[in-house]
Design brief:
44% of the residues lie in helices and 20% in strands. It has six helices and six strands. The chain has helices at residues 10-13, 20-30, 46-58, 78-85, 91-102, 130-151; strands spanning 2-8, 35-42, 63-67, 88-89, 115-118, 121-126. It is globular, with a radius of gyration of 14 Å. The mean pLDDT is 95.
Amino acid sequence: MKVGILTISDKGAKGEREDKSGLAIQEQIKTIGGELVKYQIVPDEPEIIKKTLMEWSSENLDLILTTGGTGFSPRDNTPEATQAVIERPTPGINEAIRLFGLKKTPKAMLSRGVSGIRGKTLIINLPGSEKGVRESLEAILPVLSHAIEILSEKAGECGS
């Protein structure tokens, strides 16, 4: 599974903040056989986010995980940028992430993260905090490999 991690953070892009959430994603994807192929930190600029997601998905990545920019701040643009580039939404993934998070904190309902498919690439928005990333991945890691197998036409239906 070829994976890209896109951290969206104004401070991170300026080198003013360590990317702990991106590092947490790197650790977790290894547990399911993910290979980090792309990694970048960009500012909360919709056009930069969209351009990067489109470029990476055209480079045959199986999975792009974003971290950051999913909250209520006026600078949180990740969901809108993601929605602009995906071709098919995958709402069950976001529902699972928020439901799992709500068991730990009511603040999980404030995440506006989305996910979807562009070509044969699955794109998933994760929160910007290390804790939020770890909890979100805990919710979805058990099905990610299967999702990628189906998307890449290496597996059959879910019910078999």
